[in-house]
Specification:
Layout: E1 6-10, H1 14-26, E2 30-34, H2 37-47, E3 51-55, H3 63-72, E4 80-85, H4 90-99, E5 103-106, H5 111-152, E6 162-168, E7 175-182, E8 187-195, H6 200-214, H7 226-236, E9 247-255, E10 260-266, E11 271-278, E12 281-287, E13 305-308, E14 313-318, H8 335-349, H9 353-363, E15 373-379
Parallel strand pairs: 1-2, 1-3, 3-4, 4-5
Antiparallel strand pairs: 6-15, 7-8, 8-9, 9-10, 10-13, 11-12, 11-14, 14-15
Length: 381
């Protein structure tokens, strides 16, 4: 073991502090020393040592308090923490472990035991550092992938109808992707898909579908007929050939001349059409057709359905990440509750997506969403 590893000794007993320092320096380590808990914390923050040996019983801050502080600091969390103690009861050891201690050395200090525990601690410290580095690299790659997906999404639309969206990738990055574009001057295609799983294995199939549909690469396909599109996708993306990945999708085509929406879905949550029938009443339609997710089984048949769009209607298309949220009380928010929230949002703030996402975020019991959250809002007038 080389002196690249720095060890901090914290002990109020000068004799013990000198003994530990000499023993560790003879083993080739660079040693820092502190006489109390406050000084030890300050030196730990300034130097980020690989390992700390700290006396349990000290005036002022004791070893348990120092340990809790060190383990709570993100910059010091991988530092291996050894409590030096003359206490040997199980209850005392449990207290030390609860405080975050990684190991113990009992007094009087035995040279071979100290050497073995320090070596083991430094190996674990290095492993923790390596894992943390790999985690940071993975998170950076997922963030780049999320930005790439975001760059592929279409811009908001204002004319001849209004389309806005919210796309919030989960920390792991899921498989949400969506698009909307004019097939011609009168027909708008719009879809949202969600690939099973997380990470790049879920994201790559979603991007493939987006590129395939956007480029009209599926020859002789009637892109105006949603069921035909789902059938073609199912023929193209079978699980055996796509790393066992399948996806749900909702696909619709809107004719703005006769105000008719044709749609089909494959295992996806229903799109929700809200139409104001009176100042205090809203008609709710769940737009969904039978059909298993794309890629699960070959030779699956998908069907279309139709809906006339009344004036001043709004359509919401979303992934299940918008409502499968664990609330602070431990229960999971439901689709019915989510739809009722959409109805209320129409009355309170005209269905603005930023306010909707703000409300959803307030319900979530975690810092980040477990799955991608995607919502598209179409205002037809």
């Amino acid at each position: 073991m080389t002196s690249v590893f720095q060890i901090l000794v914290i002990d109020d007993d000068p004799a013990v502090k000198i003994l530990l320092t000499r023993m560790l320096e003879r083993q080739g380590y660079e040693v820092l020393a502190a006489s109390n808990g406050q000084e030890g914390i300050a030196k730990a923050i300034a130097n980020c040592p690989a390992l700390i040996i700290c006396d349990w019983v000290m005036p002022g801050l004791n070893g348990l308090e120092v340990c809790r502080y060190i383990k709570a600091d993100p910059q010091l969390s991988t530092t291996f923490f050894i409590l030096l103690t003359s206490l040997d009861s199980v209850a005392d050891l449990v207290k030390g472990l609860d405080a975050g201690a990684d190991d113990f050395i009992t007094k009087p200090i035995e040279h071979n035991e100290l050497q073995a525990r320090v070596r083991a601690g430094l190996r674990l410290h290095q492993l923790s550092r390596d894992l943390q580095t790999q985690k940071q690299i993975l998170e950076a790659e997922l963030a780049e992938a999320a930005e790439y997906v975001r760059s592929l999404l279409p811009p908001p639309m204002t004319q001849p109808l209004s389309i806005n969206f919210q796309f919030i990738p989960s920390r792991q990055l899921g498989g949400d992707c969506f698009d909307y574009y004019w097939l011609d001057s009168d027909y708008l295609a719009i879809y949202l898909l969600d690939t099973a799983g997380h990470g790049l294995k879920a994201t790559l199939p979603s991007i493939s579908v987006l590129n395939l549909l956007r480029s009209h690469a599926l020859k002789d396909l009637n892109y105006y007929q949603p069921s035909d599109v789902l059938q073609a996708l199912n023929d193209t993306f079978q699980m055996n050939y796509q790393n066992d990945k399948y996806f749900t999708i909702w696909y619709g085509v809107y004719n703005r001349v006769n105000r008719q929406l044709t749609y089909a879905s494959a295992g996806h949550p229903p799109a929700v059409l809200l139409s104001r029938t009176s100042p205090t009443s809203t008609e709710i339609k769940r737009l969904r057709t039978p059909g298993v997710p794309v890629g699960m089984f070959p030779q699956v048949k998908y069907v279309d359905d139709y809906c006339n769009i009344e004036e001043f209607s709004s359509l919401y298309i979303f992934s299940d990440g918008a409502y499968e949220i664990i609330k602070s009380d431990g229960t999971i928010w439901t689709l019915d509750a989510f739809i009722q929230m959409l109805v209320n949002s129409q009355r309170r703030f005209e269905g603005k997506l930023d306010q909707i996402v703000k409300y959803i975020t307030s319900l979530n019991s975690k810092e980040a969403f477990d799955d991608d959250l995607s919502i598209i809002h179409i205002k037809f007038d």
